[in-house]
Amino acid sequence: MKHTITLVLLTLAFVLTATQAFAQPDVDERARVHFTSGRAYFDSGDYARALQEFQQAYALSHREELHYNLFLCQERIGNVSEAIRELEAFLATNPPDRALLEPRLAALRTRQQHEAEEQAAREQERLETQRRAEEAEARAREAEARALAAAEADGDAASRSDDSGRGVHPGALVGYGVGAAGLATFAVAGILVVTGDGDFSRGCLAAGTCTEAALDRQDRRALIADIGLGVGLAGAVTGLVIHLVTRPGESDEEAAAQASRPRVSPWLGRGVTGAAISGSF
């Protein structure tokens, strides 16, 4: 409490000194008007307007005492670097209460260092998150390319097989390809969701600074993962069933018999996936 009273008295002393200085006849009247306005804005808590007025007063009069008023405004606004610069300029004039202000300068420098370290840590975390996202997307593209290549290879092998033999139905190959692509999409999107949830928990959720865009992007990833899982399961089940109940290159009698067998069709609803079975018995 004693330290607070001392600082208040110090502030009043500087204000009175500056007021007396502006009262001298040779001081430009406009500078005095700006100083008076700045002091009124400062007393009312409008530090941004006060800063503008004190800057105008300094530009006209170049009185070194105004560095203290500029320092007070910059400190309350939160401009740490500017507050340090103004306080250093004021201390360079060797004011009588220099010993009371030097600890405040040291505290501001410590605060500036901590803010710089926090900013560097946030930037490093952002770059790391971006790197992981890029790697996950690259893995997704590679997985999709491998699934398509495998589906094409299976299709080529089936086309070269003997029509009279026991081959794989093209519908089954399509089902397998769709299932593989869906599961690959689920795996990649799931990785992004888990990684994003961890980043949110350690970052903006704890600080309460998450943006709507970031939350929407995370929701879309979760939706893509759900859809990928549903499509993957439906495609795999459909391909397996078609593979078990169909035969390519069948005779007319076998085709007629095949028509009476059950037919399976995949379907996907909101939050639900499955397969529909139909046919004549």
What would you say this structure looks like, in words?
Residues about 1-25 have low confidence and may be disordered. This protein has 10 helices and 2 strands. With about 280 residues, the chain is mostly helical. It has helices spanning about 1-20, 30-45, 45-60, 65-75, 80-90, 100-160, 170-200, 205, 210-245, 250-260, and strands spanning about 265-270, 270-280. It is rod-shaped. It folds into 2 domains: about 1-95, Tetratricopeptide repeat domain (Serine Threonine Protein Phosphatase 5, Tetratricopeptide repeat, Alpha Horseshoe), CATH 1.25.40; about 135-280, no CATH class. The chain has a two-stranded antiparallel ribbon. α2 packs antiparallel against α3 (about 45-60), α3 (about 45-60) packs antiparallel against α4 (about 65-75) and α4 runs antiparallel to α5 (about 80-90).
Q: What is the string of helix and strand elements?
A: HHHHHHHHHHEE
Helix content: over 70%
Largest pleated sheet: 2 strands, antiparallel
Major beta sheet, strand line-up? 1-2
Total domain count:
2
Query: What separation lies between the terminal Cα atoms?
Result: 94 Å
Instruction: Tell me the total number of β-strands.
Output: 2
Described by the principal axes of the CA atoms, the overall outline is rod-shaped
Keywords summarizing the entry:
mainly alpha, 2 domains, disordered N terminus, single chain, Serine Threonine Protein Phosphatase 5, Tetratricopeptide repeat, rod-shaped, two-stranded antiparallel ribbon, 281 residues, 2 strands
